[in-house]
């Protein structure tokens, strides 16, 4: 009985060591016979001491080794089937990443089309150029201005896009966008004038110009997000002054970028 237990134990360990078996041992054994292979437990492994010298398997061990081959083949088959599952999953992942890639290019095309539409509108309005920028100054001294009169900077320096009207002093935004405006107003001698940057009649920036026994200039800058057709101008600040000095007073603006 004890002898059988020892044999079983050694077989179990041999099975556990199967992949490490020298090939001449495994190769020399006729691998036939069937039986139920039982899992090697830790207890069995612990009670067995590996024999010194070459391992010469006995008949029952040979049967065990044959069963072990079946087990190895079964494990091998499982590994192969799992490997093919991994391969199929990899193909699915590749397919999905292709879909994402295609969707991204669709979105890019869409954005590009949107941008082209705006650029087309701009180029229809301004020929080949989408530049919107102007600079103008007051040609002659102006006096007797109304209480909130627009100051007419009537001498054009540049007017790319013709969005600034030198007869009314009003800039009209041709497209939605971010714009920059700047103005400098020089007062009359020993007098003051207050002015303001206005969008559609609403004040967005103030300037004070004046000096004692001299002339003084006020200046301001503003960035604006404008909608198409918004109007920007420089106006007298509610009657606080009625004179603007010619050639020294300017109004400039330009489109930084359209807003889609
Ligand atoms: C504006 O008036 C001043 C005198 O007050 C004169 O010296 C100057 O030449 C005038 N400027 C223009 C552009 O007419
Ligand atoms: C300058 O203005 C002050 C008041 O603003 C006035 O009292 C003075 O007479 C003025 N001087 C000249 C030379 O116009």
Characteristic terms for this protein:
260 residues, alpha+beta, Jelly Rolls, 2 domains, 5-stranded antiparallel β-sheet, 12 strands, disordered N terminus, binds 2-acetamido-2-deoxy-beta-D-glucopyranose
Radius of gyration: 46 Å
Shape: rod-shaped
End-to-end CA span: 91 Å
**What is the CATH-assigned architecture of the largest domain?**
Sandwich
- Helix-strand string: HHHHEEEEEEEEEEEE
What structural category arises from helix and sheet content? alpha+beta
CATH topology of the largest domain: Jelly Rolls
Strand order of the largest sheet: 3-1-12-6-9
Q: What is the CATH level 1 assignment of the largest domain?
A: Mainly Beta
Largest sheet: 5 strands, antiparallel
Q: Which stretches of 5+ consecutive residues score pLDDT under 50?
A: 1-37
Q: Tell me the total number of β-strands.
A: 12
Number of domains: 2
Residues in helices, as a percent range: 25-40%
Ligands present: 2-acetamido-2-deoxy-beta-D-glucopyranose
Strand residues, percent: 25-35%
| Number of helical segments with 4 or more residues | 4
Residue-averaged pLDDT: 81
């Amino acid at each position: 009985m004890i002898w059988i237990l020892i044999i079983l134990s050694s077989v179990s360990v041999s099975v556990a060591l199967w992949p490490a078996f020298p090939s001449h041992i495994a190769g020399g054994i006729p691998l036939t016979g069937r039986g139920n292979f039982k899992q090697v437990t830790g207890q069995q492994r612990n009670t067995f001491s590996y024999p010194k010298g070459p391992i010469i398997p006995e008949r029952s061990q040979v049967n065990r080794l044959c069963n072990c081959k079946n087990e190895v083949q079964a494990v091998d088959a499982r590994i192969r089937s799992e490997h093919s599952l991994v391969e199929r999953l990899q193909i699915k992942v590749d397919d999905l990443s292709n879909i994402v890639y295609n969707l991204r290019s669709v979105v890019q095309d869409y954005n590009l089309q949107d941008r082209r539409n705006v650029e087309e509108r701009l180029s229809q309005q301004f020929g080949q150029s989408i530049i919107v920028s102007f600079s103008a100054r007051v040609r002659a001294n102006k006096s007797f201005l109304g209480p909130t009169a627009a100051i007419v900077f009537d001498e054009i320096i540049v007017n790319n896009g013709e969005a600034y009207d030198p007869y009314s002093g009003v800039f009209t935004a041709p497209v939605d966008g971010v714009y920059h405006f700047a103005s400098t107003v020089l007062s009359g001698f020993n007098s003051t004038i207050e002015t303001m940057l206005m969008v559609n009649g609403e004040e967005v920036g103030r300037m004070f110009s004046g000096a004692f026994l001299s002339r003084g200039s006020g200046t301001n800058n503003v960035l604006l997000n404008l909608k198409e057709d918004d109007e920007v101008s420089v106006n007298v600040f509610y009657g606080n002054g009625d004179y603007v000095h010619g050639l020294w007073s300017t109004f400039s603006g330009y489109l930084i970028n359209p807003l889609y």
